[in-house]
Request: fold
Amino acid sequence: MPDSAAFHLWIGAVLAVVLALAARTDLRERRVPDRLLAAGAATLLASRAAGPAGVPALPAACGWALVLGGALAALACAAPQGMGMGDAKLVAVLALALGPGAVLALAVACAAAAAGGALAAVRIGAAAARRAGVPFAPLLAAGSAVAWAAGWP
Reply:
């Protein structure tokens, strides 16, 4: 069984790779690849199942993934022009890695998106800013960095 520090570094490394690739693809193609999310989720689930004592258990991580991913999936269905299902699935993967720290990552990402939208509305007008949209995966990556720096997982 791995020690806690090595386990946390492993979780961080997996998360960093998934986020970097998701952000890159979202910026270029405005989508988050399902294969990437499936591989990240499978790796994180296996890692959580084999993790050391004292680290949040697999059921807790899955619970956070279901709650946060489900909430964003509902938002994506209600307003598909605002957010895609890839973003919702990426939040679920974040929750597998960060547990409750994913709430902080999501809050930072939403605050950054709101600030960017407000600046865009002032600069180019509200209607043009709504049409322009914002890739959300890079903002989730930034939020995850904040959550990681704050001590999650």
Observations:
- The mean pLDDT is 92.
- The two ends are 18 Å apart (CA to CA).
- Residues 53 and 143 are 27 Å apart (CA to CA).
- The helical segments are 4-29, 34-49, 58-78, 85-98, 101-124, 126-132, 137-149.
